[in-house]
Amino acid sequence: MLQRIPPYRDPLxxxxxxALIRGLEIYRKSATSDVLVxxxxxxxxxxxxxxxxxxxxxxNTQTPAVLDxxxxxxxxxxxxxxxxxxxxxxxxxxxxxxxxxxxxSRSTATLFVHTAxxxxxxxxxxASCSEGQLLSGSEKERLFVHDVRCxxxxxxxxxxxxxxxxxxxxxWDLSTWQLFTPKVSRLRQRKSVRVGALLTVDLAVVRSFTDxxxxxxxxxxxxxxxxISAPYLSHDVELEVNLEALHREVRRTRLVESTVxxxxxxxxxxxxxxxxx
Length: 277
Known about the structure:
This protein has helices at residues 11-30, 84-97, 174-179, 243-253, 256-275; strands at residues 35-48, 65-67, 76-80, 108-114, 119-125, 131-149, 156-167, 184-195, 199-209, 222-224, 232-241. It is α+β, with helices and mostly antiparallel strands. Helix 1 packs across helix 4 (243-253), helix 1 (11-30) packs across helix 5 (256-275) and helix 4 runs antiparallel to helix 5 (256-275).
């Protein structure tokens, strides 16, 4: 009888494979020079906003539990980022494991300026983070989200497929710039470590602020950023899959299921490496 039963498929690998399939479908349908489709796994903590809330099922499991973003999970939130100690430990672990050529010596600084809606501007900042040059504008929407709670690991993680559509900000006139009202800004200092042809690990320190009173308005192609107190600090760790490269690999091999499954296994292996206690 056992010989007739299909082989065991790990549910976490299955979740990642399903998300990759979804990402590839969206990539094939909508990816252009102005539309970017992203697949990422972000480390964080999944917890309740109210300690006395009783979830329909136990969340103090000792094995990973996949949680969706349905209404039943609304009182719970995914808090992005890891502790500073965990972040520095991960940084050292990645430096020791990855080839030296894959680990950049310096981080890149980028300022993201968000509106209350889906629009955001991206500025490349100088070394002192005092001046920025406009890189692009975009609108971002999440198309697929699953949270995975891992009590025995050092962090939980969120699987997300999103789509970014570029905005022609280079052609904006003064009246359009005046309509752009910043709500939240995030100053990100990041190192990207390439892990193979498809995977990249991003380690970033992010400072967020909502007070834009000291920034000259309207915004424009250049930006002067005075010394601003950023009350919100997070240490973000993300794993990204290059969907364009994965799509090429699927077309080359013509083996969609096995290629995606092996990629999902590599993603989970890397997540476990990053979150092992």
